[in-house]
Amino acid sequence: VEPAYFIYGIKIKSHPKALIETEERVNILLSTPVDIILAADLLAGENKLPESLMFIQKDGNQSVVRVAFPRPGNYKLRIFAKRKSESGDYKWVLEYKVIARKGTGEWVNFPEVYGSFKVKDGYLYSPLKGVLHAGKKEFFKLSVPTAKRVLVVMDDNKWVELSKYGDVFTGNVLIEGDLVKVCGNFTENSDDFDVLLEYKVH
What would you report as the CA-atom Rg of the chain, rounded to the nearest whole angstrom? Predict the structure, then answer.
């Protein structure tokens, strides 16, 4: 535990010990004040691994750090935090040593998260996998409290608008192209969209 852990008022809810033994995945629950957002690094030795192995979500004052381990072995998980209003770098708050007994065998396990998704308090229900399959339908469901519209964009000309139910946006989308981006519009009578999430397509 680093000093910023106490400064930001973070509390561990699920894994109080610095060493975690698990299979190929782990979900770490933390209590985080509403204005705090998290980031993480996963290391094998001193090598930083791709961000697609981690997915961080916040729901009110609780955050979950989901991690997938590509192969069995020893890892370090470093968790960082900052206030939404702060510019500059995240501050180091926690480090876990993790022994994974199994591996997923994959390097892309979760979608890529853009900063706007965190700042706008987005929460993704599905799909949580990082790779989607062309020609198949996927059910998208996410909460984006201040969004007016949310689109699933497959290329410059192909997009599907999700249905809005309060703060939640849902819809079935037939996947095409090489990349899928989920984009949000936050201003009435504007065509400006922020990228929230990105998926690879196979």
Answer: 17
CA distances from 43 to 55, 82, 151 (A): 15, 21, 34
Digit-coded pLDDT (tens) for 173-187: 999 999 999 999 999
Q: What is the pLDDT of residues 53-73, one digit of tens each?
A: 999 999 889 999 999 999 999
Residues 174, 9: Cα–Cα separation, whole Å: 43
Question: Counting Cβ atoms within 10 Å, is residue 76 exposed (0-12), middle (13-18) or buried (19+)?
Answer: middle
User: Of 185, 186, 56, which is closest to residue 112 (Cα–Cα)?
Assistant: 56
Six-digit token pair at 123? Answer: 């929460």
3-state secondary structure of 7: helix
pLDDT single digits (tens) 74-104: 999 999 999 988 888 999 999 999 999 999 9
8 Å CB contact between 80 and 41 = yes
Half-sphere exposure of 109 (CA within 13 A, CB side): 21
State the burial class of residue 118 (Cβ atoms within 10 Å of its Cβ: 0-12, 13-18, 19+).
middle
* Whole-angstrom distance, CA of residue 61 vs CA of residue 89: 21
* Residue-wise pLDDT tens digits, 13-42: 999 999 999 999 999 999 999 999 999 999
pLDDT of amino acid 181: 96
